[in-house]
Amino acid sequence: MPESSTSAAARRLETLPWGAPIDEVMDVMARDGGLILSGALTEDEVRQVNAELDLVLEARRSGSTSDNPQLREFWGHSTKRLTNVVTLSRTYRERFLSSPVTHGYVRRMFEGVSDTFWLNTAQVIEIQPGEKAQVLHRDMGNYPVFFRYGVDAPEVMVNMIVPLIDTVEANGATRVIPGSHRWDFDRPFTHDMTVPAEMTAGSCLFYGGKLVHGGGANHTADVRRRVITSPFNPGFLVPEEAYPFAVPIELAREMSPELQQMIGFRSFYQANPRGGPLWQHDYEELANHLGL
Could you read off the pLDDT of 235-289 as tens digits, one per residue? Predict the structure, then answer.
């Protein structure tokens, strides 16, 4: 029997510690579509990330310059977005994006879909005071062809949102509809079905691309809700950020092979399900051509 909007809204997301066993995390993901993982970054690491980003964000304008009104609305008129956090924050790059825990969770989510995954983007989203709630959506919308498969679609987007301040309902905590990843895609949804994913700084909201969610409204007078969103996609799909054109090759040389591959400096390989290598140079590993 389908869940009612009341029962969906009544169920808060479950919280487990960062590093919890993968099977336990996947059980919650299968049931709810997402969960909160506490302690992904320490208090000191959060302070370091904020310090690395503060000046760049201060100079950043709010809103989008796009001519597309739908994109401007989705972006947010009073929301700052800052991409290429891979380059801008060493702490986030080394302590979160390079973490075996991060890789383990994401790899399991793509099991049977893709052996290799890209970092789709690592982007700061800072919701300013007075911003209204974002339109509800599924992240897999970046690849709309998969919508035709509905709930049976393969997992083509997995997201991790790490708050850099405590995020609560009042300052725009991300709103989600637990269990909506199992709904028929033509089933309507509204904001009154959502619950806020309230988190302390350094936690992680982990969810799949089929979960209905959106940024919350910021009703405060002076609190800027700052998070980093780090979605991942299978290696055979193009990511949002063109990292090989944004990350200096000298910086890429300092990264682990896993992170190099995640941002496009190494080739894609597929064994389960079986497929051919992609993103090569002269049918050889791209990293060899780049001298990594």
Answer: 999 999 999 999 999 999 999 999 999 999 999 999 888 888 999 999 999 999 9
Q: Rounded distance, CA 273 to CA 103, Å?
A: 19
State how far Cα 210 lies from the chain centre.
Answer: 12
Q: Which two tokens stand for residue 231?
A: 């979605």
Q: What global pTM score does this model have? A: 0.94
- Three-class secondary structure assignment of the chain: CCCCHHHHHHCCCCEEECCCCHHHHHHHHHHHCEEEEECCCCHHHHHHHHHHHHHHHHCCCCCCCCCCHHHHHHHCCCEEEECCHHHHCHHHHHHHHCCHHHHHHHHHHCCCCCCCEEECCCEEEEECCCCCCCCCECHHHHCHHHHHHHHHCCCCCEEEEEECCCECHHHCCCEECCCHHHCCCCCCCCHHHCEECCECCCCEEEEECCCCEECCCCCCCCCCEEEEEEEEEECCCCCCCCHHHCCCHHHHHCCCHHHHHHCCCCCECCCCCCCCCECCECCECHHHHHCC
